[in-house]
Amino acid sequence: MFYHVALWVPALAGLLLAAGPAAAANAGDAGNGKLVYQRYCLSCHGAQGNGQGEAAEYMSIKPRDYRQGTYKWRSTPSGSLPLDTDLEHTLLNGLYGTYMPTWRALDERSRLDVIAYIKTFSPRFTSEKPQDPIVIPPDPGYSEASVARGDAVYKKYNCAQCHGAGGQGDGPSAHELKDDWGNALVPYDLTKGHVKCGDKSTDIYRVFMTGLAGTPMPTFADSLSTADAWDLVHFIQSLSPRYAKNMASTHSESITRYEPSGIEERHGIIPAWLAVVYAAMFVWMVWYTIVFWTDKG
Fold first, then answer.
1. Is the pTM of this model over 0.85?
2. Scanning 10, 22, 210, 218, which has its CA 20 to 30 A from the CA of 182?
3. Is 61 buried (19+), middle (13-18) or exposed (0-12) by CB count in 10 A?
4. What kind of fold does domain 27-131 have according to CATH?
5. Among 3.30.470.20, 1.10.3720.10, 1.10.760.10, 1.10.260.40, what is the CATH number of 144-237?
6. Per-domain residue ranges of the chain
7. Alpha carbon 241 to chain centroid distance?
8. pLDDT tops 60 at residue 24
């Protein structure tokens, strides 16, 4: 009897393993996150999360001050807090052209924990919830006609005032810009062929619609049509051969938020193949038990 009951243990254990992670998904521990922060983040962002760590004074691009809950790289609308997945995206990918490296070496638990701790620096995270991420429609595809229209949009919205006529970040206002903390800002050189927040056309589109909080870069969500926004994306992509251009016109995936590869699995949902194994084990145990007790009868 004990032998047959024991056969159920692997199946029950599998079911518990499947249910457990889902219940704990996205639950970062701020206490453990503080230790991660002190080891990897403190020297730049400071013990108080004010962006004034020991290394900050030597950086031309200053570390983020977390206390206001103001984040540039978000998938949420202007004025909103970021999603945890937005913060994790920054940890996983870093910010190109800045002192913020990728932290892919951190395991999932450490990333979730340090995100939970970073959020303690701003009271906004206890009194507000992030808004839903913006919906980014499909890229209609890069073309010379779209680039020409995007050139006109670039001029219409006077983007050259900051970014320069050639997109090199050398516009008339380039040396006058400051962020919300009074730090000097240099408009991004769009000819680099890479933006700080990602490599895809959707990353550029998103910046137009969310703006960059804490900087003079506003949101154009209320003034820029979807068609004009994509034309402007394609114009910017024309400034460098390094941009990955979507030449097809059949791209149909709408992107509503950052989804680093495998993020669903990392956030507590077991892989599909493992779920199948657990289910097969359970079915086999049920079948075996029925057969055994039928024979006994």
1. no
2. 210
3. middle
4. Cytochrome Bc1 Complex; Chain D, domain 2 (1.10.760)
5. 1.10.760.10
6. 1-25+268-297, 27-131, 144-237
7. 25
8. no
